[in-house]
Specification:
Blueprint: E1 6-10, H1 16-26, E2 34-37, H2 41-44, E3 50-52, E4 55-61, H3 69-75, E5 79-81, E6 83-91, H4 99-110, E7 112-121, H5 140-158, E8 189-191, H6 200-204, E9 210-211, E10 217-218, H7 228-232, E11 238-240, H8 244-255, E12 263-266
Parallel strand pairs: 1-2, 1-4, 3-5, 4-6, 6-7
Antiparallel strand pairs: 7-12, 8-11, 9-10
Helix pairs in contact: 1-5
Length: 267
């Protein structure tokens, strides 16, 4: 089965979703027509593209068993006709729960036929030097599996003559979905004296939630706890405050240490 273009669309604050999605696409051995990084707020405020006879890779991390609200809201505005979707979620070695099913259902509502789906492991956004969770994932073995998965999807397409022959991929998950990440005004991040006002955290934040006029403090009501600013800071000047999120980090470190394998699903 032929399609016009390959497009990647991803929300990837710490880069792991982007890494896996790009590796899967390499398995197709075809040129990528466009990459739309919706991590950037200015991209999410632009109209979403329309697709016809295309292949689109959609990717997002998992936050508390769901895809992030900002990613979901953008995905829902995409319009597709006679186009296929390959779905990818990245989770921090706990569970991906309803995230992949949520992405599948959104893609169908947009007009896609979801051909394949996968759940890969990425270093948890809460992971740090003291409490490492899925450290350095995706690793080389993960990326090999991602590349091979891309080849599997490409082979599947080569054996399909008509879009109507494809039954949407079955993926795990429950509906109604679990509640997911709740909004919170908790003070999540502390800025230490090591901050040198470089502004890299501002560029890294997908929510414009850092106040560069006030010691680069986090605007708590807008923070989605992705920790992109923490991981991007070259001076390690941004640290997680004591409280429920640090307690959750310790729990994850203790209970999610055993490495999990990617899960792959084909139509």
């Amino acid at each position: 089965m032929n399609f016009k273009n390959i497009t990647l669309i991803y929300f990837s604050p710490t880069g792991t979703t982007q890494t896996v999605l790009e590796e899967i696409a390499k398995g197709f051995d075809k040129n990528i027509e466009a990459i739309i990084d919706i991590t950037k707020l200015e991209i999410r405020t632009k109209p979403a593209p329309e697709f016809k006879n295309d292949l689109v890779f959609l990717g997002a991390p998992v936050y508390a068993g769901r895809i992030p609200k900002d990613a979901a809201e953008y995905f829902k505005t995409i319009k597709a006709c006679d186009s296929l979707a390959v779905l990818t979620v990245l989770y921090g070695n706990r569970e991906f729960e309803d995230a992949l099913l949520e992405m599948k259902n959104i893609s169908i509502e947009c007009g896609f036929v979801p051909l394949a789906g996968c759940a890969f492991i990425g270093e948890h956004s809460f992971s740090n030097d003291e409490f490492s969770i899925a450290e350095n994932r995706p690793d080389m073995e993960d990326l090999k599996k991602a590349f091979f998965f891309g080849k599997q999807v490409a082979d599947l397409l080569n054996n399909v003559e008509n879009l109507k022959d494809i039954i949407p991929v079955k993926v795990p998950g429950n509906f109604p979905y679990k509640e997911g990440m709740a909004d919170s005004n908790l003070s999540f991040i502390n800025v230490t004296d090591a901050c040198d006002d470089c502004g890299i955290c501002v560029e890294a934040c997908p929510k414009d939630a850092i106040d560069d006029t006030n010691n680069y403090s986090t605007i708590d009501k807008d923070c989605i706890f992705c920790c992109a600013c923490i991981k991007a800071c070259p001076k390690d000047a941004r640290v997680m405050n004591d409280g429920p999120f640090k307690d959750k980090t310790k729990w994850l470190y203790k209970n999610c240490a055993k490495p999990k394998d990617p899960q792959l699903f084909l139509a």
